[in-house]
Design a protein that fits this description.
The complex is a heterodimer of chains A (about 240) and B (about 800).
Chain A lengths: L1 H24 L9 H21 L7 H10 L7 H27 L7 H24 L26 H24 L8 H41 L1
Helix pairs in contact in A: 1-7, 4-5, 4-7, 5-6, 6-7
Chain B lengths: L1 H34 L14 E4 L20 H4 L6 H5 L19 E5 L4 E5 L17 H8 L13 H4 L7 H4 L6 H5 L7 H9 L3 H9 L2 E4 L27 E4 L9 E4 L7 H8 L1 E3 L11 H4 L4 H4 L15 H5 L9 H6 L27 H5 L2 H5 L9 E5 H4 L16 E8 L5 E7 L3 E6 L2 E4 L2 H8 L5 H13 L7 E7 L1 E5 L5 E5 L5 E10 L2 E4 L13 H15 L32 E6 L2 E6 L2 E6 L9 E6 L2 E4 L3 H10 L6 E2 H11 L3 E5 L2 E5 L5 E4 L7 E4 L25 H4 L1 E3 L4 E2 L5 E3 H5 L3 H44 L6
Parallel strand pairs in B: 23-29
Antiparallel strand pairs in B: 1-6, 2-3, 4-5, 7-8, 8-9, 9-10, 10-27, 11-12, 11-24, 13-14, 13-16, 14-15, 16-17, 18-19, 18-21, 19-20, 21-22, 24-25, 25-26, 28-30
The chains are: A mainly alpha (about 240), B alpha+beta (about 800).
């Protein structure tokens, strides 16, 4: 069940994110009034993109390439404390996601041994980093809405002001909320409160919170790249 | 005349045939007719009264007042209503023929303390057990060895193909022990498991059920009868003392006027019946300290969960049994199914709460424990706190068989709880036994050698205690009232016990070399004969009378002589060409005081000068001609001293000698090691697959929740030195040695001890982790709520109001 939901949600996110890119970057996209035509254009766009990625440079194929990609990350330009905070956050989150998903999807009896020990340690680091990030960066990912006016325009999604930046804000807060539930579902089973059914429930909460947090993080990162690219393109022009 | 004679003979033969036919035909007809009776429960929940006539193995009714009646037969007494063949294929009887062995259970243990043999044996294909065939054990052997704990049927009633290869079997004398329905279902207080065990050892197999159930009084011993005897031969009028033919006497008062017997039947069986063969108790535990399984304490019976239908395919209650047997209903008889409502896969597909089973709290126990551990890890068996617990079980250690002598044995040494991964990938508690046996190397395999063959090859090497016991037994006849002959060696004193063995106790504080005999009186050991000067004219004549009495007593038991004892006190190997020279023939006991030797001649005491030789002897000795030898060999004394107060029955020296006697390919297995002689004739120990222990999962006794593992928190297991992970177990076998397998609890689990220590360490910082997580959680929640409230304030316009 969890495997199916994970795979389906990953696919769905892939489609949504690529469609967003397609919609936002392809001028022809908005001109397709027929849905089949739109989907066909989208499919061709994805195929072209995939071919470009496969045929182009593959920096991850060599250690030097990987290193170059890592060095390009903006985090290196952060002040010292912030730099290490974010590095720790990224690393712990990467390990948590990789180990969690691997054992959940491929090892029926679950995580155990050294991976589990490291998972717990990484979890603690993630919780601390997330807390600091929320305190220090939440202000950057929030936009206060205007007072609500009951109007027919509320029913028009185009007037809701859904933008990539707002999408990224949402992803940030989803990641925060998922992180909170991850933290809660790791903490409560260690306390003498939950009975057997509660343990089962929170085990599920932990898994699904983890899935949501991964999806949110991917969304956040994708939007970040998109925004950076857009800003780069504008400043370039 | 001839014609008339032929006619008469023909008529007589016809009449005989008709008579036989009449006798057999109804029986056959009855069986067929009765076998057709359907056993379908009509829904009534009361146990029917079993007022029925007893029938014997010929399907004839038993008339209690008849002369020499037969014992009752379950096949013909119970069979008419409860299809015998179907019952006989049940779990308790089908080991030799079953192909559905299921989860491993406790094997039988072929134990012979004298040769240091403890071999796990089972017809079932369970890891670590030898098949009876591989050990040359026939159905007859298995019945004689283990029938005491078998409820009849199976090997005790073998089909024809199982009987054929064993010419030593005595089925015609003993009869066969049919499935003993009453062993489990008799609620009468007369039902006596001990009586069953005794009747089996007396080879009274066909009488055993009748005797054990108290249906009749059984006497005689088939084991003392010649192998040509048959039940139809009837009693032996010439012998009323020794070779008494088995018989049964029924009490007519137990029968009604129609010769019917009223059985007191329990369905399901009472737990007392099960516990006769299924008890497990920690060694040394007092009865008053012993608690029953929590289920029994709650009022349940064993058979409430371990159910069966007429096929007697007992519900064993382990996870996976439903899949093994293809019966989904069995899921509700596992701990998990009954208490949590989960099947073996952990899915909520079972209706829980059978018989009021409570739903457990398990508060604060992370889910991983339920995925990786069986319920029994925390709830069953002994608590692994101060090391592993040694237990004895009914079938392995012959518990619950009561008589004049003690039946219970120390062997095999069984330990629990050994946590190891089961076939479903879960850690489960097990019991363990390290096998001990002699074997021969054949290619890569070790073929066990039967104890009888070892005993023959070993000769007197393994009889140290026997020799000493015989000498002490002989001297007992010369002991005055209040005196007990004792052997003193080192700092120990040995005396004869009721089982004709030796009991050791501490004596003095200093180890003394050699040995001496004495008489224990009022707590003090007095010399057998006080020192005196034989040449003194003032010597006490009473002392010489005493010497005469003692020599007479020793002469009475020539078998007390060690046959492997060379007269110079060293040991001669049994196959040593010199051995015939040291046979007991012609030896006499002598007593040496200073330079005088006392010996018996035609019952009178005579004195001769003691021969002067390299060995200066004093006190009692053996003499043949002019040769003298000590009463006990050095090996005997060393062996007895080393083993004093120990449960092991062999010393390294004995094993070395026996291996030498058995030849090059011989090996001995004990304590997880394989022992053999190297090129220099020295004993070496090595690891071997053949020395691996046999393990089987334990399920009972289940402890109450308050005594379960984890009750005191995570540190019950997760600490740097917890008993659960870091207890050590020494391989313990019949050999007294330090060269044994030593294993930690984690090694049985297939885990890393280092990791568990590290993991245990993390629990020291876990409170800090919890505090950090609580703090982080509160901050994140506060931030989210703050942002949310602010946004809500904006949306509602409340925050814009001044």
């Amino acid at each position: 069940m969890y495997t199916a939901i994970t795979v389906l949600s990953a696919l769905l996110l892939f489609v949504l994110l690529t469609f967003h890119r397609f919609w936002a970057t392809n001028e022809q996209a908005g001109k397709n009034l027929v849905i089949t035509s739109l989907l066909g254009t989208y499919a061709r766009w994805v195929k072209t993109g995939a071919n470009r990625i496969c045929g182009g440079k593959k920096p991850w194929k060599s250690p030097e390439g990987c290193l170059a990609v890592i060095r390009k990350m903006p985090v290196w330009g952060f002040p010292v404390f912030e730099k290490w905070l974010f590095l720790l956050f990224y690393l712990s989150f990467l390990y948590l996601a990789a180990s969690g998903l691997f054992f959940a999807l491929f090892i029926p009896r679950g995580m155990s041994g050294y991976p589990l020990l490291l998972h717990v340690a990484a979890g603690a680091a993630f919780a601390i980093c997330l807390t600091v990030i929320v305190i220090t960066r939440a202000k950057d990912y929030i936009e206060m809405p205007k007072p609500l006016v009951l109007d027919i325009s509320l029913l028009d999604p185009r007037r809701l002001g859904i933008t990539t930046i707002r999408g990224q804000y949402a992803a940030f807060w989803v990641l925060v909320v998922a992180g909170f539930f991850l933290l809660l579902s790791a903490l409560l089973p260690m306390m003498p409160f939950l009975r057997y059914d509660g343990q089962k429930l929170f085990f599920g909460v932990h898994r699904y919170s983890a899935l949501v947090s991964i999806l949110a993080a991917v969304t956040f990162a994708d939007f970040e790249f998109y925004i950076k690219k857009k800003i780069g393109a504008r400043s370039g022009s | 005349m001839k014609t008339q004679d032929l006619l008469t003979r023909g008529l007589a033969a016809g009449a005989l045939l008709a008579f036989l036919g009449a006798g057999l035909a109804p029986a056959q007809e009855n069986t067929e007719k009765k076998a057709q009776l359907p056993h379908v429960w009509d829904g009534g929940k009361s146990t029917p009264v079993h007022l029925i006539e007893l029938r014997d193995e010929n399907d004839k009714p038993i008339i209690p007042t008849e002369t020499n009646p037969f014992p009752y037969s379950a096949r013909y007494t119970c069979g008419p209503c409860h299809e015998y063949a179907k019952v006989a294929a049940g779990r308790h009887f089908n080991a030799p023929i079953s192909r559905k062995d299921g989860r491993p259970g406790q094997p039988w243990f072929l134990v012979d303390a004298a040769t240091g043999t403890v071999i796990p044996v089972s017809y079932r294909d369970w890891p670590g057990s030898f098949s009876p065939e591989s050990l040359g054990l026939t159905a007859w052997n298995m019945t004689m060895l283990f029938g005491r704990n078998m409820p009849g049927g199976g090997t005790a009633e073998p089909p024809a193909e199982m009987e054929a290869p064993d010419p030593s079997a005595r089925w015609t004398v003993s009869g066969k022990a049919e499935v003993n329905c009453l062993a489990c279902h008799n609620a009468s207080p007369k039902q006596d498991h001990s009586e069953w065990a005794k009747e089996v050892l007396r080879e009274n197999l066909r009488w055993a059920a009748t005797a054990a159930a108290g249906l009749g009084e059984v006497g005689g011993m088939a084991s003392r009868l010649p192998s040509t005897w048959d039940i139809y031969d009837g009693p032996n009028p010439d012998d009323h003392e020794w070779a008494v033919v088995p018989y049964v006497k029924y009490d007519p008062k137990d029968f009604d006027s129609k010769h019917r017997y009223r059985f007191d039947i329990s369905y399901p069986p009472t737990s007392n019946r099960c516990l006769a063969c299924h008890s497990v108790t920690p060694v040394g535990q007092a009865l008053s300290d012993s608690d029953p399984d929590v289920h029994l304490a709650a009022g349940l019976k064993c058979a409430d969960c371990h159910r069966n239908d007429l096929g007697h395919d007992m519900t064993r209650g382990y996870e996976g049994e439903a899949a093994d047997k293809g019966r989904a209903m069995l899921e509700s008889f596992t701990c998990r199914g009954c208490h949590l409502g989960e099947d073996a896969e952990g899915e909520n597909r079972v209706t829980p709460g059978r018989l009021g089973a409570p739903y457990p709290k398990h508060a604060g126990i992370p889910l991983v424990h339920f995925k990786r551990l069986t319920c029994t890890v925390c709830h069953s068996g002994s608590v692994l706190k101060d090391g592993f617990t040694r237990v004895r079980t009914s079938r392995a250690n012959r518990l619950a068989i009561y008589g004049v002598a003690s039946w219970a044995t120390d062997f095999p040494f069984i330990y629990e709880p050994i946590y190891a991964e089961n076939s479903r990938g879960k850690i489960a508690p097990n019991r363990i036994v390290w096998p001990s046996y002699w074997g021969r190397i054949s290619g890569k395999a070790i073929i066990p050698v039967k104890p009888e063959e070892v005993a023959v090859a070993a000769g007197d090497i393994l009889k140290a205690e026997e020799h000493a016991a015989r000498v002490l037994a002989a001297l007992t006849t010369a002991a005055a009232e209040g005196e007990t002959p004792v052997l003193v060696s080192g700092d120990r004193m040995f005396r004869l016990n009721v089982d004709a063995g030796l009991d050791a106790s501490a004596y003095g504080t200093q180890k003394k070399n050699g040995w001496s005999l004495g008489m224990l009186k009022d707590g003090a050991v007095l010399p057998m004969v006080p020192d005196f000067d034989p040449d003194s004219p003032d010597r006490d004549p009473g002392l010489e009378t005493r010497v005469q009495e003692l020599l007479t007593a020793l002469s009475a038991d020539p078998a007390a002589v060690s046959t492997a004892l060379a007269l110079d006190g060293t040991l001669a190997a049994p196959d040593d060409p010199a051995a015939p020279a040291v046979k007991p023939d012609g030896r006499t006991p002598v007593f040496i005081m200073k330079k005088t030797l006392y010996r018996l001649s035609a019952g009178y005491l005579e004195t001769v000068p003691a021969p002067e030789g390299k060995a200066i002897l004093k006190g009692f000795a053996w003499a043949r001609g002019d040769e003298l030898g000590p009463l006990f060999s050095d090996l005997d004394i060393r062996t007895i001293s080393q083993k004093a107060g120990r449960e092991q029955t062999l010393t390294e020296e004995q094993v070395t000698l026996v291996l030498g006697a058995m030849g090059k390919s011989a090996v001995y297995i004990s304590g997880g090691r394989l022992f053999r002689l190297n090129g220099k004739g020295r004993l070496t120990a090595e690891r071997s697959e053949a020395a691996k222990p046999v393990m089987w999962p334990l399920a009972h006794d289940v402890r109450p929740a308050q005594q379960s593992l984890g009750r005191n928190g995570c540190s019950d297991c997760h600490s740097v030195n917890s008993g659960f992970f870091f207890s050590k177990l020494d391989g313990r076998g019949a050999l007294l040695t330090k060269k044994t397998e030593k294993r930690s609890s984690t090694s049985f689990m297939g885990m890393s001890g280092l990791f568990q220590r590290l993991f245990g360490l993390t629990f020291l910082v876990r409170p800090i982790l919890k505090i950090v997580l609580i703090f982080c959680g509160l901050v994140i929640a506060a931030m989210f709520l703050y942002a949310g409230f602010r946004a809500l304030g904006r949306i509602s316009g409340l925050s814009d109001r001044k």
